[in-house]
């Protein structure tokens, strides 16, 4: 059977369709194996969960996920049922009859995929025997004290055992594709290949194990990729056995994939294999889409953030909230990896520029990173209480005022404003004003930090001196807890908060993909990323002028730290100079990029990986036109038609400008239609499009 590089999926509106024959999924079984199936640990959970629907749409009941069993997760996320495939049921029964516990059901997420979950604890009595099997297979030994590595061995051994029983049941048909994510699942791949189980195998690394450890230790990672002694570095960090498992899985797989080009470079040096396919991470864009109302949602949620700011900065609210911009950074508390160090230094420089230019814009910056705390900050709670008290006072006085005004007008009299409010009303208002007096600066953090003196963010805030003073144009709010709609301080969930902000800033040093800027993009919020993040590399490939679409890419790979910091400062300062209308236009453009991040488009790269794995593992049944991976077919958004040729022409000559200024060259519907037309013409990424004398795909615009 000939097999082209095919897609069995309808193209998105405007996106190029790969018109090739689809896989015979009725004659195949697809298993996706990960430690994070029904078990949220990190970002891989988001990848697997959001990708499930498009995979179920293509494969139907022939798609099954595999992961570890945790009783609480199973009871709250999985609907137990019987396997529809008798061969799968027989393989499960074989494991159960040998003393293992295996559970089957539907994962209650979009798409409702089938899941097989293996109970690690119930099979732990086999650990010593399976350690011997692993040693005999690939000479990798696991220390007894590494619980995570031992659990991954138990999980992998159960997966390999299951595949052996399953292939014995079904013989040659249907053929099986097994996709393994990360080193925790990789043991199953290594054991399956060593036992010559007939599978088409794929291994995806979302970030190399050693890369994470080196960057967490503040190593100059990307400038020394070719200089590291890999074995020595892994041994010094006591993860040599884990590194060996990861590398064995990479080299045993028929197809090796990573999530971004920057991770592909890293994997080539760390794991000594060039990835066959890059499989970017996507999102279910419908989950975030607001049906042309995202601008209204921005206004609504911005008002909620403004209410928080009114309370948090009470007594120091001497800045105009209508000219206040909200920036934020969010994610795991990895101070250097997430770029918080660069961000804080840039904020210090931004504060200086805004003050020197006497700009009337104020920037409130939120750090949403979970850290160790013991409770809310008393001063933060008091601020919200004072705000609510002022609101209640204003409402009661307004009610009296309105009633007396109404009665005066009924009598046909022009009211005497001096008599509308009596002395008691003025007394109440004066008391309310006195209650807002504050003799201390607004707090930098909303919670009581357990490690206040050594906390990296707070230590750097002390160094740069941004303490929310009256003269500071940049204010900082460190919220060391993930957002929740039940919080007494900032009662918003993460999606609402992102929609209410103006700019997300994620200047990461180590970010194999980066979901946070992607989430901003599909919600129409501009963001800052870097060319060391997978998302940033992806946008550089697919968008001719990312900054005009609200994607600012800081160069952290080829510039010094100081130059990167200045570039980030300039991005933020330029953003502060935009008028309100310019920000609205930019949000419209940002939201249009959401199709790029939809799994309905990005899922094709996973499909290509499966096709390649089948052609390599079952060459007699599946053949590809080219055994080597062809360059990825893609497209590129051109520069927006309404943007002047010179970037400087789109900026103000002075920071003082009018929000009412207009841009007569901009037509939202016309520009959106041109974008839709432009991206219909695919080209090969990395190659020069025809007509290079003009901007890529800009002919006729």
From TrEMBL:
CDD domains (alphabetical): GT3_GSY2-like (cd03793)
Catalysis performed (reactions): [(1->4)-alpha-D-glucosyl](n) + UDP-alpha-D-glucose = [(1->4)-alpha-D-glucosyl](n+1) + UDP + H(+)
Name of the protein in question: Glycogen [starch] synthase
Functional summary from the UniProt entry: Glycogen synthase participates in the glycogen biosynthetic process along with glycogenin and glycogen branching enzyme. Extends the primer composed of a few glucose units formed by glycogenin by adding new glucose units to it. In this context, glycogen synthase transfers the glycosyl residue from UDP-Glc to the non-reducing end of alpha-1,4-glucan. Transfers the glycosyl residue from UDP-Glc to the non-reducing end of alpha-1,4-glucan.
Keyword Transferase among UniProt keywords: yes
Annotated metabolic or biological route of this protein: Glycan biosynthesis; glycogen biosynthesis
Disordered: annotated segments: 633-701
Enzyme class: transferase
Native organism: Cirrhinus molitorella
Taxon lineage: Eukaryota, Metazoa, Chordata, Craniata, Vertebrata
